[in-house]
Amino acid sequence: MRCAIVIPARMASTRFPGKPLCDILGKPMVQWVWEAAQASGVADKVLVATPDDEIAEACRTFGAEAILTSLDHQTGTDRIAEVAAKVQADVYVNVQGDEPLMTAAAIEACARPLLDDAGIQMGSLYCECPERDFGDPAVVKVVTDVLGFALYFSRHCIPFARNARVVPVKKHIGLYAYTRDALLAFARLPMGFLEKAESLEQLRFLENGVGIYMAAGTGTELAVDTPEQALQVQAILEARQGGL
Q1: Which of 48, 55, 57, 75 is the most buried (most CB within 10 A)?
Q2: Per residue in 176-211, pLDDT tens?
């Protein structure tokens, strides 16, 4: 099966304008993500999807292929869907451009179930949620069925602990893999009630009967939303390179 990894990246950001091109140890942030995608070993093609000429030009300097997309997309998944309409593949993997700590192993773990089983339409990852994050609405949680498919995603802590917990709370890791049909269908569907309530675009798939297989994986220590977080990520990468 043909697999395309797509990295959505844009200059517009309320808290950190231009963040995909933020310098981290001599590389633009988006290059760190692209290198992890290349190292995953699952992709026939790795693309950066952007509405910005500055990002496309920067990508060319380090050998990445960029595709220009609309400025008007409401969600990252809509941007990936535009790419799917232009670039043929069987599976598309969405790796966010503000995740320079993302590992090749996590990307491979997200894509692998769809590459091995043509019956799976969409996949994502989870890890155990630390107790300190149970009440944090910025940390999305997921509950799954006995086959490993998502039942629901929420910013609340689910399942509610009416009785003693016997299984860990699962934290959602924001990597996605989709079949072409599922991705193109998403772009034609209206935003659902659950998606609006939680502001979680993956709920549009669940509301419309698309199963999301949840594989176990490892999340990153930090995504970049602010210049301060970029400095924290740089320190983490310095420590990794130094073997600390």
Answers
A1: 48
A2: 999 999 999 998 999 999 999 999 999 999 999 999
| Cα separation, 91 vs 79, whole angstroms | 15
- Taken as a whole, the chain contains a residue count of 244
Q: What is the pLDDT of residue 193?
A: 96
Q: Does the pLDDT of residue 244 top 90, yes or no?
A: no
Q: How far is CA 101 from CA 84, 112, 137, 230, 233, in A?
A: 25, 20, 22, 11, 7
State how far the Cα of 147 lies from the Cα of 197, in Å rounded to an integer. 27
Amino acid at 123: G
Domain positions in the chain are 3-241
> What pLDDT, on the 0 to 100 scale, is given for residue 243?
56
φ, ψ dihedrals at 105, nearest 5°: -65, -40
Burial class (CB in 10 A: 0-12, 13-18, 19+), 157: middle
Among the listed residues 223, 232, 233, the one whose alpha carbon sits nearest the alpha carbon of residue 175: 223
Q: What angle do CA 141, 147, 153 make, to 5 degrees?
A: 20
**CATH number for the domain whose boundaries are 3-241:** 3.90.550.10
Strands annotated E in the chain: 3-8, 23-24, 27-28, 45-50, 65-68, 91-94, 122-128, 141-144, 150-154, 170-179, 212-216
* CA 99 centroid distance within chain: 8
Residue 103, token pair as written in the block: 């590992």
Q: Which of the two residues, 242 and 205, has the higher pLDDT score?
A: 205
Q: Are 3 and 111 in contact (CB under 8 A)?
A: yes
